[in-house]
């Protein structure tokens, strides 16, 4: 692969257990490129995408960023350990206190799932010291993760920057930039999906899943200086038809199900916004090309100066390479969960949810199915989707 001439970012969105697909796509990209130097120097993630981004940043000293090892991390998930119901958490009986301040809880709120096993994955799978070293050395230009500050309702962008790197802060009052070292608590806060995982304290505030209001962190990647973006969505390419083959009785049953409703809410909050974000980006790309073509250079610079004053950053053309699952991940989750055999209540519940009869209800299952076999399916789907677009990948990076 030729030496990188421009900054290239990767944007990793949230989606719970669907995040294994991101690992598969990244591995597939590396298999196509066989890189001799890292392909990404700006990494941005929200929710589970924050974990994947942190892992890649901690392995950026390797040309392929140890992408295959990230896939193996996902393959190591065990539904019996990583999907445990926590009845004490549901009832609010459990109170986890930090060691440094016994008066202030580290996690707060009721939660359906036990966070301990997944927290161990985040803390131990990422070499945090190596991550900071890679950023100090400039191997990684920027790592940014997003989380929602519960009290204010503002999105915090936690960013760790290399020496000499900059982040063009937004003037949007709904966004706040927090510069400093990224640690496990930032990632866990970004992934603290309400109802499923408890909110988490970072500094003086409590945060939850950044995907609730800012799931696809395209803007932080651009504001970190990325000129080209690889964006991985966790919403399948398949459009859900207005009509289907289910009976009216089955549809009414689905509409009345809280599982169905929760799944659709998660889709709307965590997955759907990407399409709109990409449409906006494409419109701005076309606008910039048109303005450059029709305006004299001094007038074009006047427009850019106005944009710098109003939004902190001028518009510029951003090339993108977007990946989406070529299969319906919800359907895959339903088919897999229906086969689960376990004495544990969580596995039984997943199988029961998958067998309720409405295919739509599998949307929720796909977010919480932290299972090695399901992860392996998503990884292979991601690798296959990348391999099928090998020529596009090579052309995209050849232009960098």
Write a brief structural summary.
With 400 residues, the chain is of the alpha/beta class. The chain contains 19 helices and ten strands.
Written description of the protein model:
This protein is of the alpha/beta class and 400 residues long. Helix content is 48%, strand content 13%. The longest helix has 22 residues, at 273-294. The radius of gyration is 21 Å and the shape is globular.
Largest sheet: 10 strands, mixed
Mean pLDDT: 80
- Gross morphology: globular
Radius of gyration: 21 Å
Helix/strand structural class: alpha/beta
The end-to-end distance, rounded to whole angstroms, is 10 Å
Describe the oligomeric state of these chains in a short phrase: single chain
Which residues sit in consecutive blocks of at least 5 with pLDDT less than 50? 356-361
What is the tally of helical segments?
A: 19
Q: What attributes does this structure have?
A:
13% strand, alpha/beta, 48% helix, 400 residues, globular, 19 helices, 10-stranded mixed sheet
Topology:
Elements: E1 8-12, H1 19-33, E2 42-46, H2 48-58, H3 67-75, H4 79-82, H5 87-91, E3 107-108, H6 116-125, H7 128-136, E4 142-149, E5 155-161, E6 175-179, H8 184-190, E7 199-202, E8 205-209, H9 211-214, H10 218-223, E9 228-232, H11 248-255, H12 258-271, H13 273-294, H14 297-311, E10 319-323, H15 329-337, H16 345-354, H17 362-368, H18 372-387, H19 390-398
Parallel strand pairs: 1-2, 1-9, 2-4, 5-6, 9-10
Antiparallel strand pairs: 3-7, 4-5, 4-8, 7-8
Helix pairs in contact: 1-3, 1-18, 2-7, 12-17, 15-16, 15-17, 15-18
């Amino acid at each position: 692969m030729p030496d990188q001439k421009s900054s290239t970012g990767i944007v990793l969105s949230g989606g719970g257990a669907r995040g294994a697909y991101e690992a598969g796509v990244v591995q597939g990209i590396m298999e196509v490129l066989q890189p001799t130097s890292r392909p990404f120097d700006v990494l941005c993630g929200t929710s589970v995408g924050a974990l994947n981004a942190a892992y890649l940043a901690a392995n950026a000293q390797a040309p392929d960023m140890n992408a295959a090892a990230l896939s193996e991390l996902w393959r190591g998930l065990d539904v019996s350990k990583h999907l445990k119901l926590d009845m004490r958490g549901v009832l609010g009986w459990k109170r986890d206190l930090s060691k440094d301040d016994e008066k202030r809880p580290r996690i707060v709120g009721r939660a359906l799932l036990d966070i301990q096993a997944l927290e161990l994955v985040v803390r131990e799978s990422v070499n945090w010291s190596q991550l900071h070293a890679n950023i100090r050395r400039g191997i990684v230009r920027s790592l940014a993760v997003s989380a929602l500050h519960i009290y204010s309702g503002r999105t915090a962008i936690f960013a760790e920057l290399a020496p000499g790197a900059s982040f063009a802060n937004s003037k949007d009052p709904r966004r706040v930039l927090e510069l400093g070292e990224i640690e496990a608590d930032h990632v866990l806060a970004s992934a603290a999906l309400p109802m499923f995982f408890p909110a988490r304290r970072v500094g003086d505030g409590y945060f939850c899943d950044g995907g609730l209001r800012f799931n696809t962190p395209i803007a932080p990647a651009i504001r970190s200086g990325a000129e080209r973006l690889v964006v991985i969505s966790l919403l399948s390419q398949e459009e859900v038809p207005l009509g289907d083959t289910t009976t009216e009785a089955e549809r009414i049953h689905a509409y009345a199900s809280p599982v169905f409703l929760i799944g659709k809410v998660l889709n709307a909050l965590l997955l759907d916004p990407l399409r709109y974000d990409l449409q906006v980006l494409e419109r701005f790309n076309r606008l910039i090309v048109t303005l450059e073509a029709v305006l004299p250079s001094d007038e074009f610079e006047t427009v850019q100066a106005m944009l710098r004053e109003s939004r902190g950053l001028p518009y510029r053309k951003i090339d993108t390479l977007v990946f989406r699952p070529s299969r319906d991940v919800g359907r895959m989750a339903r088919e897999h969960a229906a086969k689960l055999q376990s004495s544990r209540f969580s596995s039984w519940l997943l199988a029961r949810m998958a067998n309720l009869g409405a295919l739509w209800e599998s949307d929720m299952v796909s977010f919480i199915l932290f299972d090695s076999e399901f992860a392996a399916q998503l990884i292979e789907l991601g690798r296959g989707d990348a391999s099928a677009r090998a020529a596009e990948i090579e052309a995209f990076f050849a232009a960098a």
